[in-house]
């Protein structure tokens, strides 16, 4: 009985301690004010138009942040030092220095000041005005990709949109920049008048409508998961699929009270902060709310009250499970502001018995793919694995989700994979990822266009995970469904001109050059003769020794695919060739008709004439249209033109004219279904075996030769018949007598020679 009383007393004491324990403890950051050296604000001091303070964190560079309030502060050390309010140089002539929106794009800060966009490069400490915007704008938005320097990731960070709040959607002007905001261009799409998504397949859907009763701010959570936060003072909504489905966030106050929305809970939002996994809300009622942004929806939990709110207070996440309430403090002596910080340890707060939060069921959720980026090229797949260990006696429900199911499909298998030292079961999860198009399980109207590169994140979480699993964050990776930068093409060169001794590799490396006759090339690639010969310096370091080709044999290069220095396969896809110096002394074995084209095929001339294609080597997977495609409606008007595409379904080959010499070819894979990469390279061949063309016209030699042959045939027939006639006997007799005299003379001469040879020597 005494023990029970003591335990009850101890429990009561712990509960009382928990209730009086403050949510966070304030401390003030004050630096650089030991010496009375006064810094002055240069230029026009900026201020934020809203009465509510906002705080923008750079998702990749954790120490970069922007505070928007009565004053604006930009920090590069996470507000660990006193700061002067941000100002813009007077030379920018902004007029009213009111800021309505801001965005951090990689290494630059974009501010909408007086309906125009200005750029602050904080690394170079320079200001610029954006160009290309012709109408007033009020907001700027974008995203940052933190995974790698992959072009797909860089494109996300460089993309910025600018627009004006309050306009009719059909009339508003939207601007887009792919240069971090330095240069904008008008962005328009067909469904803008009715408001919809711009890309297939979402452009056939408006998404489901949702209710709101005020002007919403939109917060894009980091990580490219498609999670959007819509909020204003009396509303908080979340979308986990880029706005297609939007739901109000429920509010939980105590173990038994659950409100369906912010307005029903009768609270007023002052500041909202989110990271990749969590959401926090500070209200004017001096309360802090918290929830997890897991795969499944969860409710905001109300933490114990404390005097946290002020008009200038703003929320930010400093790490997973770490929230900070930041308030600028003016100084009566110095122009630089100090900062009051109140850090909150979410995991510690959730241990409060009053919250009655269940203990986390999981001990471990681990995968090597977490926070990494992968690429799935056309016809490729990706295999990922993860390890999951529950607490003893607990069972877990893993859930794998992709943010863009229109592009990326998955299949997951879970199985037991042994035991830990303390007897817990280890569960292994194998995840297979492929393009949704290649799984063959989705309706074509659901999948993205297979020709267009896309992206998606994959997230592995535990469906029945408690909110107390703060440190057990979901596993996330970014998947680029696009070009694999490690791929390249190589032209097979088993027999080279150097191997056969026709060319000397030492000589090729010693500033070797050759001449292309003016009759054989066109610098404009139109098949017209040039006005002068061309001297070409051979680039041995790039081209190596030329491949050897006999001129009178139809030829097609063997194109190999390599990845990370390893051979993958011989490419069977369609590709095109073009001699880089304009040589046109070759053609193709097939015509449009013999290649069985349904439509008029493309060729280098039509590609170069297209004003949208830049440069002579612009034929690639993006502008190629197969003449065998049933959707190609170009009529077959010239069936006898050479068919200039190699590989694919035809046996087309190159046929060289009677000319020996070096050809340097550009090759490009144009099949849009082989790879998202622009697979291209240059290589050289040496054509041999062609006899030099005669300088005498062929008619001059062929006609006399034919006459001589016909005359010989006639004589062989006419002379024997003529000898049996009277004239023939007389002609024969005429020649007999001279021949006899010649024989006697020859015999006499031979006899004297014999006597001379047999006589003794005379002294």
From TrEMBL:
Domain annotation CATSPERD/E C-terminal: ranges: 511-727
Domain of life the protein comes from: Eukaryota
Membrane topology: Single-pass type I membrane protein
Assigned keywords, A-Z: Cell membrane, Cell projection, Cilium, Developmental protein, Differentiation, Disulfide bond, Flagellum, Glycoprotein, Membrane, Signal, Spermatogenesis, Transmembrane, Transmembrane helix
GO cellular component: CatSper complex; sperm principal piece
Ranges where the CATSPERD Ig-like domain occurs: 363-481
Membrane-spanning segments: 685-717
Compartment(s) of residence: Cell projection, Cilium, Flagellum membrane
Record keyword Nucleotide-binding present: no
Signal peptide: 1-17
Domain CATSPERD beta-propeller: 43-192
Protein role: Auxiliary component of the CatSper complex, a complex involved in sperm cell hyperactivation. Sperm cell hyperactivation is needed for sperm motility which is essential late in the preparation of sperm for fertilization. Required for CATSPER1 stability before intraflagellar transport and/or incorporation of the CatSper complex channel into the flagellar membrane.
Protein family per UniProt: Belongs to the CATSPERD family.
Name the record gives this protein: Cation channel sperm-associated auxiliary subunit delta
Species: Callorhinus ursinus
Designated gene of the protein: CATSPERD
